[in-house]
């Protein structure tokens, strides 16, 4: 499912080029694939000049040679605003539709970012991995993100408990009260709407 990052880069560059052309802006585009994490990947010189980790970006930008200024400061600001305005959060098709999965076919549980197993268990105040001891307060946000990718943007307290292997309805309710959910309906018919902002959180998924 993971496309070649260089192919993806070319595709994005093409679309950005068109977007700029529509605004009669002609500027050179210099591209990098930037990875947010440097602990999960080993890259052996694969077009290395076009791949960077996020901490390298400031230096890469500083190293660029500027021949002549094309846009003035105001124009750059205006373009930045327009780009932000035109940004749309990526809404994926849910994977269960795409692959016709049923929930029963999936392994349930909250992923440990220490050892990548579904072995996190909620204690009093945080998640703790039963296999490696890793602790995290917010692991359930990644679980909600996984749910979003797999099932879409709605879930019930019961579904959340099943998916994250939490027994208590009250614990589930407490964990579901976070900035990425909105509760609609009352009592048994209440449903949580998940915010697409969940998809912008760092993820362990290869999508
Ligand atoms: Zn672990």
Give structural attributes.
8 strands, elongated, Arc Repressor Mutant, subunit A, 2 domains, 7 helices, alpha+beta, 207 residues, three-stranded antiparallel beta sheet, binds zinc ion
Q: What does this protein look like?
A:
- There is one protein chain.
- It is elongated and about 65 Å long.
- Helix 6 (157-164) crosses helix 7.
- Strand 3 and strand 4 form a beta hairpin.
- The chain is of the alpha+beta class.
- The model has no long low-confidence stretch (mean pLDDT 86).
- It has a 3-stranded antiparallel β-sheet, with no helix packed on it. A 3-stranded antiparallel β-sheet has the order 6-8-7.
- It has 2 domains: 5-86, no CATH class; 95-200, Arc Repressor Mutant, subunit A.
- It has helices at residues 5-22, 57-62, 73-86, 95-98, 139-151, 157-164, 169-176; strands at 33-35, 51-53, 120-122, 127-129, 135-136, 154-155, 181-184, 191-194.
- The chain is built from 7 helices and 8 strands.
What is the secondary structure topology, with strand pairs?
Elements: H1 5-22, E1 33-35, E2 51-53, H2 57-62, H3 73-86, H4 95-98, E3 120-122, E4 127-129, E5 135-136, H5 139-151, E6 154-155, H6 157-164, H7 169-176, E7 181-184, E8 191-194
Parallel strand pairs: 1-2
Antiparallel strand pairs: 3-4, 4-5, 6-8, 7-8
The chain binds zinc ion.
Strand proportion: 5-15%
The level 1 CATH classification of the largest domain is: Mainly Alpha
- The CATH topology of the largest domain corresponds to Arc Repressor Mutant, subunit A
Order of helices and strands: HEEHHHEEEHEHHEE
The percent of residues in helical segments reads: 25-40%
Number of helices: 7
Sheet with most strands: strand arrangement: 3-4-5
The CATH architecture term of the largest domain is Orthogonal Bundle
Class by alpha and beta content: alpha+beta
Shape: elongated
Bound compounds, each kind once, are: zinc ion
């Amino acid at each position: 499912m993971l496309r070649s990052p260089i192919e993806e880069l070319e595709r994005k560059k093409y679309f950005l080029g068109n977007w700029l052309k529509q605004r009669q802006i002609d500027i050179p585009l210099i591209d990098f694939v930037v990875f947010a994490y440097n602990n999960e990947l080993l890259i052996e010189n694969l077009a290395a000049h076009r791949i960077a980790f996020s901490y390298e970006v400031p230096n890469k930008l500083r190293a660029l040679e500027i021949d002549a200024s094309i846009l003035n400061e105001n124009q750059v600001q205006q373009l930045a605003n327009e780009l932000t305005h035109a940004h749309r959060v990526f809404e994926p098709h849910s994977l269960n539709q795409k692959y016709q999965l049923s929930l029963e076919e999936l392994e349930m549980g909250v992923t440990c970012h220490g050892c990548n197993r579904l072995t996190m268990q909620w204690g009093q105040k945080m998640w703790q991995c039963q296999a490696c001891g890793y602790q995290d307060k917010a692991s359930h946000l990644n679980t909600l993100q996984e749910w979003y990718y797999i099932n879409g943007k709605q879930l019930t307290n019961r579904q959340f408990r099943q998916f994250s292997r939490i027994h208590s309805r009250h614990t589930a309710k407490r964990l579901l009260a976070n900035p990425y959910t909105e509760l609609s309906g009352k009592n048994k018919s209440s449903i949580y709407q998940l915010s697409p902002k969940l998809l912008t959180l760092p993820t362990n998924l290869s999508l």
